[in-house]
């Protein structure tokens, strides 16, 4: 089951859409390396699932795909949250047998493994530490980056990795943005997120419901950058779940007042029969809003 941080009334990332250059190659990667199953597939798309019922990630092959370019806005990484530390240990055990390059970080609130898909899209696979161990100073949560204790993780692994376990969710998304202050104003004032942590002057972490972050924002490589072309691999959109129609109308009004256009998003699934709407953030990143958990 998802944690309460990834349930209503919190606003959270439920789904990420990624553009790829070779559908078959990406399907092999996301099934064999990451551990997804396919929920639905068409000629140029695939929707992945961990529980056989809902999709938290989908990919789309774009024609004449352009590779990722440095300095562009868009995806820094999307982050798959496993239900337990033992699951993360089993994932590490699994991936260590596959000769896949990885990075890692102990962020105090969580332990994370980092890798890239065949197109260079960034991926984090992580497990949260119990929230009672997180350190809050007022409205700011303590996060850091230290080496991961792989020995400790592998000691609790039991060799039972059989793909992503049920209860896996999209934990957060981390975005490369062009202007941190404009992004902060957009996500906090228009959408209602709260800033909970910073890394220097170039990264900001925001959440609802006192999670350590539902969205990360940074300008480490994208300061002043522009969006990638439509036929570039990378992020197509990410989906935020809203609590109710009242919140949806409030956000629509906030967006209109701040000069952002909202529209019906034809590229998104129809969620429980209720059509999603979407907008574009100040860095050109497409956000889909829905009332339905996928």
UniProtKB/TrEMBL annotation:
One of its GO terms (molecular function) is lactoylglutathione lyase activity. Keywords: Aromatic hydrocarbons catabolism, Dioxygenase, Iron, Metal-binding, Oxidoreductase. InterPro entries: Glyas_Bleomycin-R_OHBP_Dase, Glyas_Fos-R_dOase_dom, Glyoxalase_1_CS, VOC_core, Xdiol_ring_cleave_dOase_1/2. It comes from the Bacteria. The keyword Transmembrane does not apply. Residues 12-128, 169-292 form the VOC domain. It holds the Pfam family Glyoxalase. Gene3D superfamilies: 2,3-Dihydroxybiphenyl 1,2-Dioxygenase, domain 1. Belongs to the extradiol ring-cleavage dioxygenase family. PANTHER family: CATECHOL-2,3-DIOXYGENASE. This is VOC family protein.
């Amino acid at each position: 089951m998802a944690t309460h941080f990834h349930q209503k009334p919190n606003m959270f990332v439920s789904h990420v859409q990624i553009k790829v250059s070779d559908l078959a190659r990406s399907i092999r990667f996301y099934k064999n390396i990451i551990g997804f199953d396919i929920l639905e597939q068409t000629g140029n798309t695939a929707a992945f699932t961990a529980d056989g019922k809902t999709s938290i990630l989908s990919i789309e092959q774009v024609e004449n795909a352009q590779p990722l370019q440095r300095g562009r806005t868009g995806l820094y990484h999307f982050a798959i949250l496993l239900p337990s530390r033992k699951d993360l240990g089993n994932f590490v055990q699994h991936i260590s047998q596959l000769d896949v390059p990885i990075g890692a970080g102990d962020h105090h609130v969580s332990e994370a493994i980092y890798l890239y898909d065949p197109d260079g899209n960034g991926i984090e696979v992580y497990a949260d530490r119990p929230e009672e161990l997180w350190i809050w100073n007022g409205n700011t949560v303590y996060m850091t980056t230290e080496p991961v204790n792989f020995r400790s993780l592998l000691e609790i692994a039991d060799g039972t990795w059989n793909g992503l376990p049920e209860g896996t969710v999209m934990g957060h998304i981390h975005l490369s943005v062009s202007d941190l202050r404009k992004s902060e104003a957009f996500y906090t004032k228009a959408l209602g997120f709260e800033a909970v942590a910073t890394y220097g002057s170039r990264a900001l972490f925001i959440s609802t419901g006192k999670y350590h972050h539902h969205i990360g924002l940074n300008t480490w490589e994208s300061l002043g950058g522009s969006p990638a072309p439509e036929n570039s691999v990378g992020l197509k959109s990410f989906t935020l779940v809203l609590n109710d129609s009242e919140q949806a109308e409030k956000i629509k009004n906030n967006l209109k007042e701040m000069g952002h256009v909202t529209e019906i998003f034809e590229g998104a699934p129809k969620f429980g029969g209720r059509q999603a709407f979407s907008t574009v953030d100040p860095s050109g990143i497409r956000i889909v809003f829905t009332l339905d958990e996928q």
